TrEMBL record:
Keywords: Signal. The lineage of its organism: Bacteria, Pseudomonadati, Pseudomonadota, Alphaproteobacteria, Rhodobacterales. Pfam families: DUF302. Residues 1-21 form the signal peptide. The keyword Phosphoprotein does not apply. This is DUF302 domain-containing protein.
Length: 148
């Protein structure tokens, strides 16, 4: 009986943790702030709206903790997000889109985001929805422009 509970616990924990394979990582040769400035400029240049830019390291510093350099950009375009939410309102839990810029322990800066197809896969959103493909393409182009 203990084995059943232990197995159930492991399954519950594993299903709550997103798989690293679901995350797309793009290396940048620029510092975090410069990479994020470039991403923000690309997002705004594409006509999308930047809703927030979160400096995680500054937040940690505000409570006397340290954290490596990390910033999150939250942005979107209602032309892509609205159809997702029309298909399933719960898509609003994942939208607007988010991209994290951070420096790892070896000093490499990364832009990381979740693949929209994976992100929306548990919802009533058709796997072949055109807006999902457009989100994937936009994220690829924007992050690619940011690291150049």
């Amino acid at each position: 009986m203990f084995k059943s509970f232990a197995l159930a616990g492991v399954i519950a924990v594993m299903s709550a943790i997103p798989a690293a394979a679901d995350l797309i990582k793009i290396p940048s040769q620029k510092p975090v702030a410069e990479t994020m400035d470039a991403l923000q400029a690309a997002v705004e240049g594409a006509g999308a709206t930047v809703f927030a830019r979160v400096d995680h390291a500054a937040g940690a510093q505000n409570v006397d903790l340290s954290l490596g350099d990390a910033q999150l950009l939250i942005f979107g375009n209602p032309k892509l997000g609205t159809p997702a939410m029309q298909a399933d309102m719960r898509a609003g839990l994942f939208l607007p889109l988010k991209v994290l810029a951070y420096q790892d322990g070896e000093g490499q800066v990364w832009l990381t985001y979740e693949d929209p197809a994976v992100m929306l896969s548990g919802l009533d959103v058709p796997a072949d929805a055109g807006f999902v493909t457009k989100m994937q393409g936009a994220l690829g182009k924007l992050t690619g422009a940011a690291v150049r």
